[in-house]
Design a protein that fits this description.
- It is a single chain.
- The chain is an alpha+beta fold and 358 residues long.
- The protein folds into 3 domains: 128 residues, Winged helix-like DNA-binding domain superfamily/Winged helix DNA-binding domain (Arc Repressor Mutant, subunit A, Orthogonal Bundle); 89 residues, Arc Repressor Mutant, subunit A; 118 residues, no CATH class.
- It contains 15 helices and 12 strands.
- Helix 7 packs across helix 9, helix 11 packs across helix 12 and helix 11 packs across helix 15.
- The longest helix is centred in the middle third of the chain and has 19 residues.
Length: 358
């Protein structure tokens, strides 16, 4: 059993596979979503199986900022309704219908609840190595519209699209939001769902967005979402070191990671933060020379709106330099002197030790 108790924190991380975010359709109340996402933040990256997750109801209510303590008695109602709500995941030719929770146990007089996720959610929340989205629980806790957390997740998992935006058909977006029959008139759908989410994400989360309407004839049939980071927002990006290191890691391990991050930042003429450097490091599997190579390629490419996102895609899809001679990416600006070859060896050693400690 995983006992959350005194450690419930809005800065804990929610992790889901991108496939799950973009191929599941469900209709939950705002309270139900926040309960599920709080529960999801208790799942540890190294978990092989879901555990029963136990926490104090009072702490959950406090975390959500609910002042009305009458909500305390409503938690069993919320979990009961959750267990009734079956939702769908499209997996190739297979349609999976499942509930979020497999059980909810209350022990009278203790103030605790013990919840268990449905085992059918394991592939989308456990042992995720690639193509997943991770964000701080704090990003969604203060939202008031039930559609805002869902829109946040959809946009968050597409934050680094190569072209700088994601295009969604209105019909597909309605399906993802389970809002096929909500606000049938597009203008109402835009005003009460899209524009409200736009305001909430900008005010409360680590990303914001602009959108462009695409018409077929006179009818708006799709939207282009341009996703940007809220750089100066009070919710700081995920701390790349705390997310990557656990208490078993040594000072040497941490030093290797910090050095690798600083080495990556030294490659760029542009300012990038530690989180972006860590994302690049992960995409390149610790090979800093690949990051240098793709950065060089980016210098000869035009119309790049999101440099870090573009380089991540270039690494994953192995973009090649067209010209025979590579430009020296260290010209025209100062950088620290790093022994990249030895640093990579150290990093590989750190990653091996880290994996053994997981």
């Amino acid at each position: 059993m995983f006992l959350w108790g005194d450690y419930m924190d809005k800065n804990y991380l929610v992790t889901k596979s991108n496939y799950f975010i973009m191929n599941s359709s469900y209709d939950l109340s705002l309270e139900e979503q926040k309960l599920i996402l709080t529960l999801a933040s208790m799942v540890q990256p190294e978990d092989e199986e879901f555990k029963p997750y136990k926490f104090k109801i009072a702490e959950f209510i406090e975390l959500l900022g609910i002042e009305n303590q009458a909500k305390y008695t409503e938690t069993p109602k919320i979990t009961k309704e959750l267990m009734k709500k079956v939702f769908e995941i499209q997996e190739g030719n297979k349609l999976i219908q499942t509930a979020w929770l497999s059980s909810a146990i209350y022990e009278k007089g203790t103030g605790y609840v013990e919840l268990s996720f449905s085992p059918y959610l394991k592939p989308y929340m456990l042992k995720l190595n690639t193509m997943f989205t991770q964000y701080k629980l704090a990003n969604i806790l203060s939202m008031k519209s039930k559609y805002s957390p869902r829109i946040y997740e959809i946009l968050k998992c597409n934050e680094f699209k190569k072209q700088g935006y994601i295009k969604l058909e209105i019909e597909d977006l309605r399906k993802l939001l389970k809002a096929e029959n909500v606000y049938p008139k597009y203008n109402d759908f835009k005003r009460y769902i899209i524009e409200r989410a736009q305001k909430e994400l900008k005010k409360l989360s680590d990303i914001n967005f602009e959108f462009e309407e695409i018409k077929t004839g006179r009818k708006v049939t799709s939207l282009k979402f341009y996703i940007k980071s809220n750089i100066n927002h009070k919710i700081k990006p995920i701390d790349e070191v705390s997310a990557s290191l656990n208490s078993n890691n040594t000072t040497r391990d941490k030093k290797v990671l910090y050095e690798a991050i600083n080495a990556i930042k030294s490659i760029f003429k542009e300012n990038i933060d530690n989180l972006d450097a860590k994302k690049l490091l992960d995409a390149a599997n610790g090979n800093i020379n690949i990051i240098k190579e793709k950065y060089d390629l980016a210098q000869s490419s035009k119309e790049i709106n999101n440099l870090v996102g573009w380089i991540i895609t270039a690494i994953k899809e192995d973009y090649k330099v067209q010209s025979k001679e590579k430009a020296d990416i260290f010209n025209n600006y100062q950088q620290r002197n790093y022994d990249f070859e030895n640093l990579e060896k150290e990093l590989l050693s750190w990653e091996k030790n880290y994996d053994n400690n997981r």
